[in-house]
Amino acid sequence: MPRVHITDTVLRDGHQSLIATRMRTEDMLPICSQLDQIGYWSLEVWGGATFDACIRFLKEDPWERLKKLREALPNTRLQMLLRGQNLLGYRHYSDDVVRAFVDRAADNGMDVFRVFDALNDTRNLRTATEAVRKAGKHAQGTICYTTSPVHDIPQFVSMARELEDMGSDSIAIKDMAGLLTPNDTFDLVTALNAAVKVPVHVHSHATAGLAEMCQFKAIEAGCRHIDTAISAFAGGTSHAPTESMVAALRGTEHDTGLDLVKLQEIGFYFYEVRKKYHRFESEFTGVDTRVQVNQVPGGMISNLANQLREQGALDKMNAVLTEIPQVRADMGYPPLVTPTSQIVGTQSVINVLSGKRYQTVTNETKLYLEGRYGRAPGPVNSVIRRLAIGNHDIIDERPADLLPDEMDTLAKEIGELAESPEDVLSYAMFPEVGRDFLEARRDGKLVPEPLEPISQDQVREGVAATEFNVTLHGETYHIQLRGTGHRGTDKRPFYMTVDGMPEEVIVEALDEISLEEESDAPRKVHRGSKRPKAQKAGDVTTSMPGTIVDVLVKEGEHVDAGAAVLVTEAMKMETEIQAPITGTVSAIHVQKGDSVNPDEALIEIDAS
């Protein structure tokens, strides 16, 4: 009997889609014994954004999570999502880093590696696939499904054949945006099954409300592996409910053989767990059929909303949603999945906010247009490319071929903070956040962000409100302070919700007010000079609020107009800021880590 097998995503993609990847290991382990008895084909437990969230917000070691889950789930395959040459970060890594990461993940308990590339450039999958095979684990070659003038079923079939020849043990259709329709699913699965001998898996998000129908049509076309999520973490931007699909197939020739009552008991457990993370719920987690028009996944829409809210420009959302398909076309129609979704989305926001398309171009957009993420699926707009990168060479080779080995260098950089190869890899994935995590672990200061509102004993009575409204540029935002992290020098993280959306804000004290009971007036404690307002032609400014990543010049240095003098980060993307005139740097008012605003003179240049 052709039984249908299920991969449950509740421990990874389910909570990543619906509660911002915030589920803690402590809420996974108690239910593992029951999950282990179900008979899943696999449980997706790691990869994607979980690694980042563990060290950035939960203050957990993601490697320790993997070890604990392996111990708690001895009878079930563990599965992860791996971004090919990007691993779990946002850049390409050298081959030795890719091999080391796969080796350590396999040794710590990973069984199935779903390997994908945002551009469907199979050159970016080869090293990871070979490493998985060498480790004796299951390599799942992945097709990122999308629609465009340059994507069609024959192209996906050709890619599947190449993945099979590369050594993939199975092929996954990764429908990250929920773009599949039932008939297209049937046609695609039929074509893939005719072309390859390895099993085909279907992973489709429920964003447009079509996932269950797509999976049923996939099964009719011969698919025997589907991804679902326990109902408490299903639907919307997540997946079809596990219990529903098990019930739909029960008693048919495709019966999963899974116990519906036991699944329901697990669902009740996660129903209660989800309440614990209520402050991470997003208004963008329901059915959203707009994805069928603009191809913007629900998770990407919520991220765009946060970015625009930070810039005081939430009213520009419709303009951004209109701009995204245009930018995607300019870039040769990349599928919108990490990291291309961030690259296209952020560039679209900048285009809209600046009022002139590509007046400011992020470093990631430039790298993409140079070919450093891989081969674009379709032709790139040559005018936009020239505008963004000038006469820079376009690389044709596999991007990682240009990267020297990195592991030894990374180990030296992080030094004694790394107690294992896994620590070095954590630092490699997220250098700044990884270093902060390892330092806090060394100092015994790993404290996760709070789940509930800040208690009154955490703030001095009468000094600060914990819930308030802020009006900025005519827009009013409701703020609730949830908690605060450890203070380091003059910077301190505060955890809050802005109109219900969770945010982490780094506050750097420049001036302080000391409130003393015996004083008739507050005493101002001066902590640093304010930057001058930008007024002169030689004043270097930024087009939007952000953070200084690097200062590229020194006082007294001669610079030419157009030369890069600063690197800023806004909306998780870096941008080089150029000198507006030719001259000599007379003053620098910023340093690495500073928060900056558009009206400030960050660097002053005197004309020569």
Topology of this protein?
Layout: E1 5-8, H1 10-18, H2 25-28, H3 32-35, E2 42-47, H4 50-58, H5 62-72, E3 78-82, H6 95-107, E4 112-115, H7 126-134, E5 138-144, H8 153-166, E6 170-175, H9 182-195, E7 200-204, H10 211-220, E8 225-228, H11 242-249, H12 260-276, H13 291-294, H14 298-310, H15 317-330, H16 340-354, H17 363-369, H18 382-389, H19 407-414, H20 421-429, H21 431-442, E9 467-472, E10 475-484, E11 491-498, E12 501-508, E13 511-514, E14 523-526, E15 539-540, E16 546-551, E17 558-559, E18 564-570, E19 573-578, E20 583-588, E21 595-596, E22 603-607
Parallel strand pairs: 1-2, 1-8, 2-3, 3-4, 4-5, 5-6, 6-7, 7-8
Antiparallel strand pairs: 9-10, 10-11, 11-12, 13-14, 15-22, 16-18, 16-21, 17-20, 18-19, 20-22
Helix pairs in contact: 6-7, 6-20, 8-9, 9-10, 11-12, 14-16, 15-16, 19-20, 20-21
Task: Describe it.
The chain has 608 residues and is an alpha/beta fold. It contains 21 helices and 22 strands. The protein has an eight-stranded parallel beta barrel with strand order 1-2-3-4-5-6-7-8, surrounded by six helices. Helix 7 (126-134) links the parallel strand 4 (112-115) and strand 5 (138-144). Residues 459-463 and 513-529 have low confidence and may be disordered.
